[in-house]
Amino acid sequence: MATDPTTPVARLRGGFSDWIADRVADLGAFMLDRVAAVGDVAIFTFRTLAWIVARRQRRDVLVPAFYQIGVLSLPVVALTGLFIGMVLAVQSYAQFRALGLQTRLGSVINLSLVRELGPVLAATMLAGRVTEQIDALESMGANPVYYLVVPRFLGCLVLIPTLTVMADFMGVLGGYLYSHLVLGIDYHHYWNNSREYVDAFDFLMGIFKSFFFGAAIALVSCHHGFHSGHGAEGVGRAATNAFVHSFVLILILDLFLGMWLNNVHDFFRPEGPRRLL
Amino acid sequence: MASSPPATPVDPALPVLAAERLTVHFGLVTVLRDISVAIAPGETLVILGESGCGKTVLLKCLIGLIRPSSGEVRFEGRSLARHSERSLASLRTKCGFVFQGAALFDSLSIADNIAFPLREHTRLAEAEIAAIVDQLLAEVGLPPQVRSRKPMELSGGMRKRAGLARALALDPPVVLYDEPTTGLDPIMTDVIGELILKVRARGGVTSVVVTHDMHTARKVADRIVMLHPLARLAADAPQIVFSGTPAELDRSRDPRIRQFIEGRAGNRLVEAAAGGGS
Hints:
Radius of gyration of chain B: 19 Å
Distance between the termini of chain B: 35 Å
Number of strands of chain B: 10
Oligomer: heterodimer
Helix content of chain A: over 70%
Number of helices of chain B: 10
Order of helices and strands of chain B: EEEHEEHEHHHEHEHEEHHH
Number of helices of chain A: 9
Structural class of chain B: alpha/beta
Radius of gyration of chain A: 25 Å
Low-confidence stretches of chain B: 1-12
Structural class of chain A: mainly alpha
């Protein structure tokens, strides 16, 4: 009776050590999966870079990808940029007015935009996917990395920085329009304060980061597209995962690049951090 | 017209394509188990079976798009596993593959889609390529106006025919069709059947057609192989439940085959409600 595994006590005892063993095994499997995934993406990145140099890029392959990434996403990036600029004005105004600093609104809106939000925004609007044409390419003896990944990689690398400029511009415009027309902050104060606290370094820092975001999105999304499960469900899940992983990666990259770029800034401007307020 | 093509003598000694003891797992699910099929030169083999029985997976294994978990595929006697990436690519130029959803490249026009394999694998001048594209369009019955259209602007039947034209561009000795008639009306289904016969008449093309459409199967097949979903089979039962001519299929007494060719639901609805089967 005592050895009968179906009695509650035996089940509990066996169950508990089994439970621990299961959790340890799960953790191990989880870690192995992550390490394997990082290795996979690294190999994938290497193959992509190899194909960039291995074969001359074809115009008729690049142009459609660039069009898709650069032109078709422009309205979305511009619109979200405009609204983020306005939202920043709405959010910051109350705090600034409490301090009597509402005329400084322009500096904080524009600084946040060009350093952080513009690049992240332009990048997240683009975390797309590769569809079922991989098999078709392979069946015709054509390399899918060359035809599908390289154009998207180059497109993201070149065009996300330019989309960032667009997001910056629209955000600055949106922030100004709201501050001026709704909150009644005058033109002179808004822009003068902005000019004082936002400089070329801030702008270039945003652009610099966006190159990394572009490369990360292209590689993560294409990698998911290439390893999607079978059927419509698999493609759908791959697209969702590509978006989630790209988004997380962008934010992580943003943190570390931001920390590093602050050091770079202090190196070139040893007078110390600027004081916004 | 339901005239069946004349049966060609099948020489099993020299198959163009052969799957030997193929097994494919996706994660924990086994889709194909111990499948052996040989396709003789000039033969049209139809792989029949209900949705989810693994017939598309088998077709993709035949040109190495899916690597089997065990077993091997031989193309002209040589195992695909022994080919390098590069020689596999050149081998694939000998196989035209017609995809279920046509798999045309959305960003390219129909003419550029059809010209794609020619540009990838030949050094023909653009004028020659244009001439071949026109000829292929005529062959699959598409008007010249579709040349500059994008795939999205065409109907399903037109897209399938454009996909067939692209698969034929390099004049391959083997053509594989994945569900060529799915989603088409009965007339267009018959048109595709006619096209498969026409392609086959092009100097002994070997064809493999995956379908669940009995009309197409009867129309084009020299030989039919029927797969059964593994979920509905006992652990050691063979997955190929039939192999023979269309006439033999019609005479079969196997209840699983009768259910399929007569299209009867049986108790599937009850099973589905109980969460069993697919």
